[in-house]
Amino acid sequence: MLQAPVSTTSPLPAGHPPVKVPRVGVLLINLGTPDGTDYSSMRRYLSEFLSDRRVVEVPPLIWQPILQGIILTFRPKKSGHAYAGIWNRELDESPLKTHTREQARLLAAAMGERHGEKVVVEWGMRYGNPSTASALEKLTAAGCERILLFPLYPQYSATTTATACDQAFRTLMTMRRQPALRTVPTYHDDPDYIAALANSVRTHLAGLDWTPDLLITSFHGLPKSYLEKGDPYHCYCLKTARLLREALGMPPDKLRHAFQSRFGRTEWLQPYLEPMIKALPGQGVKNIAIMAPAFVSDCVETLEEVNQGIRETFLTAGGQNFTYIPCLNSSAGHIDLLVKLTEREAAGWL
């Protein structure tokens, strides 16, 4: 005998708190930024950043006296000067914060068009503000029972992707009710990422009235010992460079890779960017284009270190033409990529 279907919904008992409609959260996580260029703001930011055991693996008993007593006495002033040269005066913040906020806004708009109010997008920083914890709190308050962590690092490294996820996990350890989590994996060789990079190169070079002799892909450096311990970052960077060269149809001698931002006296991943740049004019390379594929947002390492410092180094050494190709930032191609990666990694949730 057929039975009437049983209802799966029932009125809430008296006094029960409101039940939010379950939603899916997406958290874009970037490296971080100081709150200002003054000494105190820079010292606070650098202390948090350089105290991360994922970043500096020297035992704290040895490292902290050096960091707090020597490095943070002098480095905040130098770093503050670098940030001051690229600071967003209108919003009183670093370009990294400006770009990350805009990426989140545009991703939210795109996901809203495709999925309605089911998806909530937030953004946060591993170091500085807005914090990863505050972003997770916003997502859970919005009813997100499932959250996709999206570290904005195409090439995985323990010093970037892993520590970003670590920070989110620490926040979850304090929660009574935890959301379900997924993390976006490395996408250094994703066809859509490579296509977005290639399109940015073509668009930029089309606007020049000269032709580069060489395209340089500059990646943030890493101590060589980290590679020897198993960090895959070096391999991922080289694969990105190779795939980009192939997508552009360039011969091997027209694209080189290098590593920038070396810190300390230990050996880092090579070739180092600055010595390479200095030597190029003497080798007959007078016109170069340079980009930083490991960064999805322009920041102090790209705008000050590369577009200002490396430009000056090259021209002083005898170079004639130098152009910096901006990061993907908030370009349509980058937002399309973020949408595709989000939908792929949140499959079954949306």
Report the span from N to C terminus. Answer: 38 Å
> Helix tally?
11
**Count of all domains:** 2
Strand order of the largest sheet: 2-1-3-4
Question: Which percent band covers the strand fraction?
Answer: 15-25%
What ranges have pLDDT less than 50 throughout 5 or more consecutive residues? 4-8
What is the N-to-C succession of helices and strands? Answer: EHHHEHEHEHEHHEHEHEH
Rg, Å, rounded: 23 Å
Shape: globular
Which topology of the largest domain does CATH recognise?
A: Rossmann fold
Instruction: Return the CATH architecture of the largest domain.
Output: 3-Layer(aba) Sandwich
Structural class: alpha/beta
Could you give the count of β-strands?
Answer: 8
Mean pLDDT: 95
Q: What portion of residues is helical?
A: 40-55%
Account of the protein in words:
The protein has 350 residues and is an alpha/beta fold. The protein has two domains: 23-185 and 332-345, Rossmann fold (3-Layer(aba) Sandwich), CATH 3.40.50; 191-325, Rossmann fold, CATH 3.40.50. Helices cover 45% and strands 16% of the residues. It is built from eleven helices and eight strands. The chain has helices at 39-50, 60-84, 95-115, 132-141, 158-172, 191-206, 224-228, 233-248, 273-279, 300-316, 332-345, and strands at residues 23-33, 119-128, 144-151, 180-183, 214-220, 255-260, 287-291, 321-325. The strands form two sheets. The chain has a four-stranded parallel β-sheet, with helices on both faces. The protein has a four-stranded parallel β-sheet with strand order 6-5-7-8, with helices on both faces. Helix 10 links the parallel strand 7 and strand 8 (321-325). Helix 3 packs across helix 11.
